[in-house]
Write a structure and sequence with these properties.
With 305 residues, the chain is α/β, with parallel strands linked by helices. It is built from 15 helices and seven strands. It has a five-stranded mixed β-sheet with strand order 3-4-5-6-7. It has a two-stranded parallel sheet with strand order 1-2. The longest helix is centred in the middle third of the chain and has 29 residues.
Length: 305
C-alpha cells in the first residue's frame, strides 16, 4: 500500500485484520511506523516496497490524483515485472487510467483502477469499490476486494478506466446532494420558525425519503456546533466535480444540478466578487438603485485582489 493517509491507512488496517500481509510506504515516516505497530511491514522507499514483495506482486496506490499518482506510476513502471498488478485506488481522471493501462500493458503489467468510496468509516463498515481493468487481473485481486468491501460493495464495471469513470459520476452526484442539503438547511435556519437543525436532520433520517449517511453526518456536525461558527464557508473541490461537468458537456448530456453545485463551490471562495460589483453598478446606472459603498480599507483590499 503506497499512500497511508486517511484512506490508505484504514484500508491497510482492514486488510491486516483479515489476514493479508501488507507492506506499506508513505513519505511521512510516522504513518509507516503506525502501520508496523498494527502488524504491517514498513518500507522506506517505493523501491523497497517492490523488493519486499514476492512476485507476482500487487501494489495499491492511494495517492492524490494527477502528479503524485503519475510520478509514483513512473517509478513503479521500471521496477515492476511482467505479471505484476498495479492498483490505482485514488480519484484519477478515467482517461488517465486508460492511458496508463495501455502503457503498462506493453510491459506485461496490469493496471486496475478502483474507484473507492466509504470515507473514514470504511474501516469499520467496509468500502464501496468500483473496479475497472482486465478480467484476469481483477479476478486475482478478488480476495483483497472481498476483505475491503462492504457485502455486495465491490463490482467489476468494465475495462480500464471504467472504475474511475463510475467513481467520477458518483462524486458528481455527491456534489448535488451536498448542495441540496445545504440549501434546505439554510432555508430552515432563515425561515419563519425557530427550529433545531440537528433534530430536524435526525427526524428526516427516521424513515424520511431524503435520509442518508450524509444527513447522519449533518446531525453530528450540528450537534457539535449548531451555528457552524468554527467553520469558514469556503468549499474546495477535488476535481471530480469539474471532470463530471466537462464530460457531460463533451457527451451533450445536461447536468444542471451538478453544474450548479460546482459553481456554488466556486462562489464560496469569493470575497466581495467583482461580478457582483458589476451587477450593483449597472442597477444603479439604469434604475437609480442604491448601492453599498465600500470602506477605504475594504476598497484597498478589493483593489489588490
Amino acid at each position: 500500500m503506497i499512500g497511508l493517509g486517511r484512506m490508505g491507512a484504514s484500508m491497510a488496517r482492514r486488510l491486516l485484520a483479515d489476514g493479508h500481509r501488507v507492506v506499506g510506504y508513505d513519505c511521512e515516516r510516522a504513518r509507516v511506523a503506525a502501520l508496523v505497530r498494527q502488524g504491517g511491514v514498513g518500507a522506506k522507499t517505493i523501491e523497497a516496497v517492490v523488493s519486499t514483495l514476492h512476485p507476482p506482486r500487487a501494489v495499491w496506490l492511494m495517492l492524490p490524483a494527477n502528479d503524485p499518482t503519475e510520478q509514483a506510476i513512473e517509478k513503479l513502471a521500471g521496477r515492476l515485472a511482467r505479471g505484476d498488478v498495479l492498483v490505482d485506488g485514488g480519484n484519477s481522471f478515467y482517461k488517465d487510467s486508460v492511458r496508463r493501462a495501455e502503457r503498462l500493458a506493453s510491459a506485461g503489467i496490469a493496471l486496475v483502477d478502483v474507484g473507492t468510496s466509504g470515507g473514514i468509516r470504511g474501516l469499520e463498515r467496509g468500502y464501496c469499490l468500483m473496479v475497472g481493468g482486465e478480467v484476469s487481473a481483477v479476478r486475482r485481486l478478488r480476495p483483497l476486494f472481498k476483505s475491503l468491501a462492504l457485502a455486495g460493495g465491490s463490482r467489476h464495471i468494465g475495462p480500464s478506466g471504467a472504475g474511475h469513470f463510475v467513481k467520477m459520476v458518483h462524486n458528481g452526484i455527491e456534489y448535488g446532494m451536498l448542495q441540496a442539503y445545504a440549501e434546505g438547511l439554510s432555508l430552515l435556519r432563515g425561515g419563519p420558525y425557530r427550529v433545531d437543525l440537528e433534530r430536524i436532520a435526525h427526524l428526516w433520517n427516521q424513515g424520511g425519503v431524503i435520509r442518508s449517511w450524509l444527513l447522519e453526518l449533518a446531525e453530528r456536525v450540528l450537534a457539535r456546533d449548531p451555528e457552524l461558527r468554527s467553520i469558514a464557508g469556503y468549499v474546495e473541490d477535488s476535481g471530480e466535480g469539474r471532470w463530471t461537468v466537462q464530460e457531460a458537456v463533451a457527451f451533450g448530456i445536461p447536468l444542471p444540478v451538478i453544474s450548479a453545485a460546482l459553481c456554488s463551490r466556486f462562489r464560496s471562495r469569493a470575497t466581495d466578487p467583482f461580478g457582483d460589483k458589476v451587477v450593483a453598478a449597472l442597477r444603479r446606472e439604469f434604475g437609480g438603485h442604491a448601492v453599498k459603498s465600500t470602506t477605504p480599507s475594504t476598497h484597498a483590499r478589493s483593489a489588490r485582489q
